[in-house]
Amino acid sequence: MFKECFDNVRDKSPLVHNITNYVTVNDVANIILAAGASPIMSDEPEDVEDITSICGGLNINIGTLHKSSIEGMLRAGKRSNELGHVVLLDPVGAGASKLRTDTALDIAKEIKLDVIRGNISEIKTIANGSGSTKGVDADVADKVSEENLNEAVAFAKELAKRLDTVIAITGPIDLVADSEQCYVIRNGRKEMASITGTGCQLSGLMTAFLIANPEDKLKAAAAAVIAMGAAGEIGWEHMKDGEGNSTYRNRIIDAIYNMDGEMLDRYADYELL
User: pTM, whole model, 2 decimals?
Assistant: First the structure.
């Protein structure tokens, strides 16, 4: 089902422009490399238009904002739109502060986005224009669960239709939706939450999948979510006594490095609603 999506990343080795946060920038670069793609990191406003022009897509992550990087995000995003490149927004911490919320909403308004990927609290902030989060984590009351799954799927589809984009909501249960279909994905492990930046890594990885599979962005986004979740499962299988979250981070990246399309299909745990 998803084999071709991953194989295309390996075969095409897409170049990904990342404007991401300095907490996780190295891990984002490494997981993109592990998948067979290539990362470039640049947020300087005078640099981003040239850099994004040579790439196939843009990953915008608002995790560590400053005025200069915000200008860079907008300039790179508009240039990417002019070139017809893929653009993904990761609205990290939207709802936690006015600056983060306003920046996420401005980007969503001024730039045509192919995917918005975040936790449920961040995505609700985009939908409502305001909100609250537990730092950069989802509020516990907002967790997607089996009990509220149908409601969450309907919400994701409606927002995807309203914003004309793919909506990817990640958490204990992941949702990847356009206006008509939603992948409900149950890959991953709870221990992934102990690592700073698995979401940031996923956004970079997802951008690579989107560039390599332009004909089906919904499927490409879902494939990236499954790959990251499967890497979490495989990485955990290789953990040894005395190892912790630092080792687990590396094992997840290694799992992506050693993954191929056939392995991705074997691990995929999803339904399409």
Answer: 0.93
Cβ distance 236 to 246 under 8 Å? no
Strand partners, 39: 16
Burial 161-171 (b: 16+ CB within 10 A, else e): eebebbbbbbb
Condensed to tens digits (0 to 9), the pLDDT of residues 136-190 reads: 444 445 688 888 999 999 999 999 999 999 999 999 999 999 999 999 999 999 9
CA-derived radius of gyration, the chain: 17
Alpha carbons within 13 angstroms on the beta-carbon side of residue 256 total: 35
pLDDT digit string, tens, across residues 189-224: 999 999 989 999 999 999 999 999 999 999 999 999
pLDDT, residue 130, reads 62
Quote the CA–CA distance of 212 and 37 in Å, as a whole number.
9
- Give the number of other Cβ atoms within 10 Å of residue 40's Cβ: 14
The amino acid present at 141, given as its one-letter code, is: A
Alpha helices in 54-188 (DSSP H): 67-83, 98-110, 120-128, 149-163
* Burial class of residue 237, CB neighbours in 10 A (0-12, 13-18, 19+): exposed
**What kind and span of H or E run contains 61?**
strand 57-61
Q: What is the pLDDT of residue 145?
A: 81
Q: Are 270 and 3 in contact (CB under 8 A)?
A: no
Residues counted in the chain:
273
